[in-house]
Amino acid sequence: MGKTRLVRAVCDDAVKATVLWGRCVRFGAVDSPYGPLVNALEGWVESAEPHELTEVLDAVPAAGQLLPALGGHHEVRLLSVVDGLVMAIARQRPTILVVDDVQWADPASRDALAYLVAGFRSQRLAILATYRDEELGTGHPMHSWLADLRRLPSVTDVRLDRLSWDETEQQVAMLLGDRPRRGLVDAVVRRSDGNPYLSELLLEGVSVTADELPADLPAELSGALLAAWHRLSAPGREVMRLLAVAGRPSSIDDLREVAASAGIGPDAVTRALAEAVNTGMSVAQGADLCWFRHPLVAEVLYATFVPGEAETVHAAWAKALASRPATGLDEVQRQGDLALHYEAARDLESCLEASLRAADLASGIKARREEAVHLRRAARLWPIVHGSDAEEVGLLERVARSNALVGDGEASFQAWSRALELVDERTDPLRACRLLRRWADSAFATGRTSGRPIAEAEHAVELSRAFPDSEEYADALAFLSWCQWWNNELELSGKYAEEAVQAAHRSGSNVALSLAYAVRGNADIHGERSDTDTATGLRFAELTGDPELIWRMLVIRHNYLTRRGRLLECIEPIKRFLAFALDEGALSVAVFAAGLLSHHLLMFGRLPESAEVIREGLSLAGLPNAGAMARLSAASLSVRQGNADVAGLHVQRAEELMPGLENRTGLFAQPVLAEYLIATGRPEQALDMLSRTIGTQYVDTRDADELLVWGARVAADLMEAARDRREAVGSIHAAYDELLSARRRMQPQPFELGGPDDLIQPAMQALFTAETARYKAQSPTSAQWEDAVRRCDTAGLLWDEAVASLRWAQALLDEGSSRAVVAVPLRSAHRFAVQAGANPLRQQVEAFAALCAIPLQEPTQPSPPETPGPLRSLTKREQEVLSYLVAGRTYAEIAKALFISEKTVSVHVSNLLHKTGTSSRREVAALAVRLGQTPRN
């Protein structure tokens, strides 16, 4: 069997599962967003039990805005609705979502599939997506999508190879009911090339006793697909050809209208469809749509038209569709279909108009990928229809912006390049300035320039200098300031930034003001007004509503806050921006935001929050560096959750996206790679990598300081292991000394404060100091670790605080402290590890606690209505004391936790024994456990 039949057989066997089946249709270059998924969900709506339908729709109120059957108008962020509906259905019973022929899926559907399988949550959902690899030519977007998907957890790729001779013989025997003759099998293998679907078609009407296939079959394999069609009546064959031109499942009314233009009446169409269904060539889809049983049939039938013959049929389909306006996604699809039919009918002017209407509609519902596709077609047709003119330049600007917004940097660059070619600098210098500025930005983003394009920035300033009050002049000055800052020309950067602010105020443009204030704050990032300037730049950007501009200004604001040690202030603004970017369909910047936000959430130990953000990032296509950042966060989270193999897949994909990952700046790659190498038993490689790459962090030495902490951590681990095994430590010292020397050569000095509110650097320095003491085997070290825990707690670095708490407990034990003292930081680390799902850390803490015979369970008390009879007479304080006895606490620990004396604890325990009729604290604790009062893990 082929891919589709295999999946159907699997789904037929899954009798206790809900099956959602969506099929992608090949029709030109674009489909409406979420086409196959909407189709699958609509099928479920038609077949669902009333009570299940009600429960699911109640759980996802926005469902009515997605599904046409419920009157949807599609003005919401559809991905969240698709996800909500699928998960609500899966909560009813195990669910299988099938997307057949995903090589033809629209980009939004591929995003949704990636989101559903991205992991980091449990779900009773299996997703089966089929595709034909012969459809994937060089440069097909499926290649990158598949590469991303294969690096996600729980994804398996099953390849269906061509059938061998023996396998074909088995198939023929099953189809014909007996073992076939060798000559017949030879003929089938020769003509089908092992394709099981073609083999089945070739055998229609063939007897098992035949030695050969019928001689009258066409020599080409496409003839096998047309075998059933040749057996139709003449009107039936013509109606099927008309349907093939439609390109997708079509309504019977539309088919009748098209057929009428060819002189075929409505009754003849009905008879032809019945005939095609009876022969297995066509199938009904719902009550109104008809299509072919296999999409290959439509392709082969379309090929039966001689050149020019199909033009009138396309014109007829365009006429039929033009009379049936729709709304929302359906109208985007209708206009897209009209454009393709008009183009095939050589009505290029109408095609251009339909393409622009489709782009406008897609923009209105924030379907940005579809908008970009329609705009690209319009840009291709414009010079043919109208010739090159000023309006074409405006269209190309729109093409460039829309493609940049969805992460297609190459298409954006080509559009900027073409627009720049069409503009004469002498007659339209301001537009030339604007285009040159955007072109230069795009050239850098797509890797065409290694450094910031200062020459182009200077030329843009010269082009606009005669217009000192213009937005373009202010923008060009700001861009030049930014480029000079990247080249470390800080004095020049500040000079141009000051001029940009003055020009921006003269222009009155929010765009210019946002850029100017942001770059001035960036140029003087250590100055007093940097705080106000970067905040002002972001505020003006937010007034424009432009996601790309807002993101640029947010990054500058983020960089300022990071350098001042106010990193915690960055999280909420980036969270708000991510939600905004997703709502706006600004996928390229949304990926960047997800990568940056997830990195910070992991740094602050907020693992569950980071998991949801990472899912968003993994589901979106974007520029390679943004995708790599999301993958690195996924790798770090996987390591901390105990999934090192999964982390390896994410690291591998990040390396594919950004080769030479360990030497890149701004991606936070080195700490993640070090963490992954440690988790997979390769600490020597981690230390070597950190020593080699710390010099790349000259742009922001705070990143270098983070690498310094990781280096000290790895070196200390290696030294402990070497001392335990009585091994030489010379290579460890050499690698670590190289790391320290590389950092000393950088300015400013390690762990320099970014400002009076900087809490991050003191915490990092405390961690470094404690790890260095461990590296040198100094004793005592508990004071250093206590300081590290306290400073990490103040800075909100919960992950580092938990790790340091474990080290503190180990140091206390080494110094002879009592179990009660050791237990305090140990239980704190355990609490975090349990709440965050940090399984490796939890296992380390529990192993150490077992060694020290320290119970880790947290006390818990039953609520009053649930208190069992023997415990009902206890006072609130006695219940508290009992909960600590159940958790295994000593009198001293109970006294410290409840702020009472040990003597008072003893009195409460005596009362407990008397009221419960027990004779010891162990007996009363055991009674409480039997009655359901269990410690909390």
UniProtKB/TrEMBL annotation:
Molecular function in Gene Ontology: adenylate cyclase activity; ATP binding; DNA binding
GO biological process, one term: regulation of DNA-templated transcription
Domain HTH luxR-type: 867-932
Highest taxon of the lineage: Bacteria
Recorded GO CC terms: cytoplasm
Gene3D superfamilies xref list: Winged helix-like DNA-binding domain superfamily/Winged helix DNA-binding domain
Keywords: ATP-binding, Nucleotide-binding
Pfam families (UniProt xref): AAA_16 (PF13191), GerE (PF00196)
Claim: Lipid metabolism is one of the keywords in the record: no
UniProt entry tagged with the keyword Ligase: no
The name this protein goes by in its record: AAA ATPase-like protein
